[in-house]
Design a protein that fits this description.
Layout lengths: L14 E5 L10 H11 L3 E6 L2 H13 L3 E6 L5 H15 L4 E4 L14 H29 L2 E8 L11 H21 L4 E8 L5 H6 L9 H10 L9 H12 L10 E4 L10
Bound molecules: nicotinamide-adenine-dinucleotide (NAD).
Length: about 270
């Protein structure tokens, strides 16, 4: 695979936990690409997902490239499951150096068609889980005086996407505020925390969860519309996000904390015509 060729081992000796390291459907979800690049850079990777088989596929890819990884099942809606994951991953691979929170639930809709139950479920999955997973890894990171905590956010945190996605957008903004606060509170312990703000990314997810937002379009037409609005001329790939994650997870970003790295092909600084 060309993305994995000749990688410098900038994460050698590091243990990375990627929560949401599978993919919602066959192909390259962002968490899968992140897990693979972390492993190619020398990390041992705990790949966790609600869908254990999908996490297992990521692990198979990593092992086929000569890397080290283990699959774990987790449900981010269940605090005990997250705590168990951190404990199991630590026992099987070692103390967690990099926590990457990548899971998101979403539901298109404005305030009138977002029920309180949907709102709470999305907040729990996308925000409460950041808090719970962070609480679980912090003691070890503080003791070792090093650690990196990353979250995959979205440009939905900053702007309307052209279709309403109220609950999702609110959680993606909360992830940024959470991360900024964390970064400052734990900077003195050598722990860095940053957010990746992803633009329109061509992953299997868009065919599964976004079809309603592009009603009347085939999958190809939907993709074409998404490609066209991006100044660089295309949606991003899972690898575009994984490259940013790898940089932020590594010591190359050792002076970067509390930051948002926008990876969107220029979309969020333009006005579409
Ligand atoms: N695809 C895009 O256009 C895009 C744009 C901006 C941001 N993002 C963000 O990137 C991240 C990954 O997106 P993706 O497109 O790869 O989607 P994805 O749905 O393939 O990835 C999410 C993973 O989370 C897992 N998951 C779902 N519910 C879970 C639960 N309760 N517990 C544990 N795991 C669970 C899924 O099985 C899946 O493997 C998300 O945070 C998303 O908000 C995506």
């Amino acid at each position: 695979m060309k993305e994995t060729e000749s990688r410098e081992k900038i994460l050698a000796e590091r243990i990375c936990l990627v929560i949401g390291g599978g993919s919602i459907a066959p192909g390259w979800g962002i968490g899968r690409a992140i897990s693979v690049l972390y492993a190619c850079a020398g990390a041992r990777v705990a790949v966790a997902d609600l869908n254990l088989a999908s996490a297992g596929e990521t692990v198979d890819i990593i092992r086929s490239e000569g890397g080290v990884a283990e699959a774990f099942q987790v449900d981010v809606l269940d605090d005990a499951s997250i705590a168990r994951l951190v404990s199991d991953a630590t026992s099987r691979l070692g103390a967690i150096d990099v926590l990457h929170n990548n899971v998101a639930l979403s539901k298109s809709g404005n305030p009138r068609d977002t029920s309180a139950a949907d709102w709470r479920r999305i907040q729990d999955a996308n925000v409460t889980s950041l808090h719970v997973s962070t609480q679980a890894v912090l003691p070890g990171m503080m003791e070792r005086r090093r650690g990196v905590i990353l979250t995959t956010s979205s440009i939905a945190a900053h702007r309307h996407l052209g279709y309403s996605s109220l609950a999702y957008a609110a959680t993606k903004a909360a992830a940024i505020a959470f991360t900024r606060t964390l970064a400052i509170d734990y900077a003195a312990f050598g722990i860095r925390a940053n957010t990746i703000v992803a633009g329109l990314i061509d992953t299997p997810r868009i065919g599964v969860v976004l079809r309603g937002a592009y009603a009347g379009c085939s999958l190809e037409e939907m993709k074409e519309r998404r490609h066209k609005v991006v100044p660089l001329g295309r949606m991003g790939t899972a690898w575009d996000i994984a490259e940013a994650a790898l940089f932020l997870a590594s010591d190359r970003a050792k002076y970067i904390t509390g930051a948002e790295l926008v990876v969107d092909g220029g979309l969020s600084v333009t006005v579409p015509h």
